[in-house]
Amino acid sequence: MREIIAVVTSRRRASLGVSGFLLTLAVVSATAATLAQDILRDLGGLRGEQGDPAELPLEQWPDRDVAGCHMLYTSVRRESNGSGWRTDYPWAQRNLLIRLSELTKARVSWLTPRSPHVWLVRLTDAALFECPYLMASDVGTIGLTNEEADRLRQYLEKGGFLWVDDFWGEAAWEQWSRELARALPSGYSVEDVPLSDAIFHSMFEVRKVPQVPGIGYWRSGGGRVTSERGEESAVVHFRAIRDRQGRIVSVMTHNTDVSNSWERETEDPAYFSQFSVEGYALGLNVLLYAMTH
Fold first, then answer.
1. 204, 130: one domain
2. Structural domain of 33
3. pTM of this prediction?
4. I need a labelling partner for 159 at 20 to 30 A (CA). Which of 14, 128, 151, 168 fits?
């Protein structure tokens, strides 16, 4: 909006009377505001799943402590119970980082005394390369441009770490794996990770990858059903990509919503007991692995 007003000011003010200038300024301002509203509407108003305003990355971050990063992407299809890029943002990572600050000596970057920074980052943002790790949910709906695929490849090659979570069933896996393949460096492949791998023993002993349903789905099934796509999503997959040195650079938790075990931890004691303890153990292990390997 400032750029549009500046053009009007510099080019037209000399030839307009005061009333004409003010009228033009009002029209331009209204047009710019409408354009801005259209952009925000197309992006869902840039608010998270529970209505929280997005934290867009600053030109210079407030400190160099550990902050979360959540991917802003475009959805090209829909999934049941999914919300596109908004899914699990920002409270899943906020709660995970709170636990990181409580259970380790890691210094976390704080927005408020009880809310860590979780930046909403496009793959085309310069801030991407400031992110110690990057998370995304509902990636079975994602569509990447060529530029975004190239930037994701650069991020992984430069030492970045990507964790995608909360996508269910074969159609979601096919969509994600097809888009991911466009971003993978040559020669890289996806593998299932055995429980003997170091990533499961960074801090806690993780003996299984929990199948965590969204809390709404869990309630609708009386607290007994965990597979959101029935038999199709009955088996949980913990898949990964490794670099040429064998270091995991991306984790994919498929047929589970681990992030929901952090995001919704306070909403139901039974849900917390059933899912959040195991969910935090896995989340902290992955986070510590990402920051130390």
1. yes
2. 2-41
3. 0.84
4. 168
